[in-house]
Amino acid sequence: MNHFHYKGGVLHAENVSLTDIADAVGTPFYCYSTATLERHFKVFSAALPKDSLVAFSVKANNNLAVLKTLANLGAGADVVSGGELRRALAAGIPPDKIVFSGVGKTKNELTAALAAGIYQFNVESEPELIALDRVAEGLNRKAPVAIRINPDVDAHTHAKISTGHAETKFGIPWSRARDAYALAASLGFIDIVGIDMHIGSQVSDLAPFEAAFAKLTDYAKELRASGFAISRIDFGGGLGVPYRSDNAPPPDPSEYGRLAAGALKGLDAQLIVEPGRLIAANAGVLVATVTYVKHGENKDFLILDAGMNDLIRPAMYDAYHGIVAVEAPLPDAPLHDYDVVGPVCETGDCFARARPLPPLKSGDAVAILAAGAYGATMSSAYNARPPAPEVLVKDDAYAVVRPRLDDDAFLTADRIPDWLRKA
Ligand code: LLP
User: For residue 377, what is the domain's CATH number?
Assistant: First the structure.
């Protein structure tokens, strides 16, 4: 469900024409829909037990305006760096709704998070527990901790975004979980509050969740029986989204909610979830213009002004994204197979291969769909291309919420050292 639709022959975000934004802002740009963000957040939250904390995974989309939109609905945040923590706080997400995940939190990051008074540290190793205890002692403040356990479950998703099996760097191995809790209990400035997991992203089947939820909640009961105060269960993020209309749709949030509530039954613990993709993916598109149509030896290339530096998912994970013309094609327009590519000097700079599209020509705009999660946040300046700006739409209004870096600002970020100036 999203709010990108054709009206009067032009693709709109809510009630704003993408052509109008393109004319004003230039392409490429990301465009997000407030209504879609809000709907996804509300539908997912409503599917969960009352008092659950829905901590939006900031890595999916860290634009301050997007975070503020969600903060206004009561969202918390799942952050994985000091930078994401700053963004979450700057967007007005209360510290007592922020959880901090990640395998490599530095002393500075731990200090900043503890000083801010965040809700929970999802600790991923024994050395991190010890480092956090020291930082907490320095601040004379107890650190609320959930230990992230690696449940060793196959999430049936892309290998590069699968996190919950024993071969990955994430979480403390199941076999050492008990020792990790004992270590935490022995540290003076660690306050054990819960247990955490995350099995992967774009999970499109409930079975791995079911297995992992059961494993984690059974273990939480055991820990309680041994005297550990487990009052929060963090199930991570990970419900997939429908990138392709011809694939079976991912499970509905209500099914996920039922499963989570069932697993928590009788535990009297707060549920924490960290959804990213499911909130933001379908709330955003990347709008680009066709620079050239090039006839290759045996195929045609649609060369866009957006590249893998703007949206790396196809190059990195062979991810599928729908692509549509911003000006609606005639209903009987013939389809033609194009390789849709960017201008970056890499063979992998390809958004789609042999994609059937209506005839397109230089100057036509296209929208790459479901790009609101892990799009702008993973962009780079490769090939000295400033990342695409971001626009947020609300009904018939829009605002540029992250401007394009102007060419001078981009250039003058670098410094020439003295010895080169003198040469
Ligand atoms: N919590 C933790 C600890 C995570 O590692 C992640 C994602 C999430 C929550 C959010 O998961 P979600 O609800 O979005 O599935 N760049 C990749 C996705 C990497 C996800 C990494 N962790 C992509 O574009 O597909």
Answer: 2.40.37.10
Name the DSSP letter for residue 203.
Answer: B
> Atom of ligand 1 at shortest distance to CA of 280?
14
From 395, 403, 320, select the one nearest 12 (Cα to Cα).
395
pTM of the model as a whole: 0.97
| Annotated catalytic residue 350 | no
CA of 354 to the centre of ligand 1 (A): 28
What domain range includes position 221? 102-273
Give the separation between CA 335 and CA 359, rounded to whole angstroms.
7
* Ligand 1 binding pocket includes 277 (Cβ within 6 Å): yes
Same structural domain, 232 and 343: no
Residue 238 has pLDDT above 80, yes or no: no
DSSP-derived secondary structure for 270-328: EEEE---HHHHGGGEEEEEEEEEEEE-SSSEEEEES--TTT--HHHHH-----EEESBP
4 CA → ligand 1 middle, Å: 24
Are both 249 and 296 inside the same structural domain? no
Contact 40 CB / ligand 1 (< 6 Å): no
Looking at the fold, whether 168 and 259 belong to one and the same domain comes out as yes
User: 374 CB under 6 A from ligand 1?
Assistant: yes
Residue-wise pLDDT tens digits, 8-47 = 999 999 999 999 999 999 999 999 999 999 999 999 999 9
From the list 345, 384, 420, 423, the catalytic residue is 345
Atom 6 in ligand 1: which residue has the minimum CA distance? 237
The C-alpha R_g of the chain, in whole angstroms, comes to 23
d(CA 76, CA 59) in angstroms, rounded, equals 13
278 lines ligand 1 (CB under 6 A): yes
228 domain-assigned: yes
Mean pLDDT estimate for the chain:
95
Together in a domain, 166 and 237? yes
Query: CATH no. for residue 226?
Result: 3.20.20.10
Reply yes or no on whether the pLDDT at 423 is more than 70: no
Do residue 145 and residue 260 come from a single domain? yes
Which atom of ligand 1 sits closest to the CA of residue 148?
A: 3
Structural domain ending residue among the three candidates 245, 273, 301: 273
Do 234 and 374 share a domain, yes or no?
Answer: no
Pocket lining: 101 vs ligand 1, CB cutoff 6 Å? yes
